[in-house]
Structures are given as C-alpha cells and as structure tokens.
Amino acid sequence: MSGRTLFTKIIEGEIPCYKLYENEHVFAFLDINPLSKGHTLLIPKEPAPTIDQLTPDSAAAIGKALPILSRAIKEATGAIAYNIIQNNGKEAGMTVPHVHFHIIPRYPESKHSFTWEPKSMDVSEGRTIADAIQHSLSE
Description:
alpha+beta; HIT family, subunit A; 3 helices; single chain; globular
C-alpha cells in the first residue's frame, strides 16, 4: 500500500498517537516532536498533499476545527498566544505530503520565531499579479 502517509497510518490507528479531536472530516493529535508544550497537528482525513487539492468539505471542517482546538489548547496549557503554521510542498518546508496545520502554543519563555523580511512591491507589479490571480479565479 504505497502512497499512504504517516498521517494516514495515524488516522487508521496503525501508529499510536495522543489523539485530541476527531470528527467525520478531521483528526487532531499532539506532535511527537513539539516546538512547545501542547504543539498540535490538525489534519484532514482526506489524504490531499496540499491545501489547494482539498475538497470544500474537508477545508470547511478544518476551518471549523481550528478555533475549537486553539481555544482548548490555550485553556489546557496556559499558553498566552499561539501560531498556526501550514506549509504546502517540500519547497515550502512540508515534510509529510498530507495537509496539516501546526497549532503551536506560545508562552512567556517561548523563543521560537517565524519571521521574514517583507519586500516592497511597485504598483504595476501589484496590478499584474492581482489581475492574473483574479483571472485564475474566474476560470
């Protein structure tokens, strides 16, 4: 059964996990290599490799589950804030080719950082990119 990811095996119970939440469309569990206490992974049961390949039902279920889990994690851990990180494709830092969202609690002593250097964009470049995206959306 090649093509099955680590996350598919977790969903199917072949690999143990600390399950936190499950419904018809999504599954959430603690990351076994956490960046902070309570670091959670939320995944769709649908085995899509990137978010643009998810069905609307799976995407909607993730959108509904994210605030529910985020509130529970903050309450249970005492976190003061959190990051939600989601990568698409190996070049973007994705290590398991199955859509997943990291909910990473932040504490006063947290040192991890997700910063980047913003660049400026000129008006003509902005219009060209916006027009191209709008065209793709209308197809």
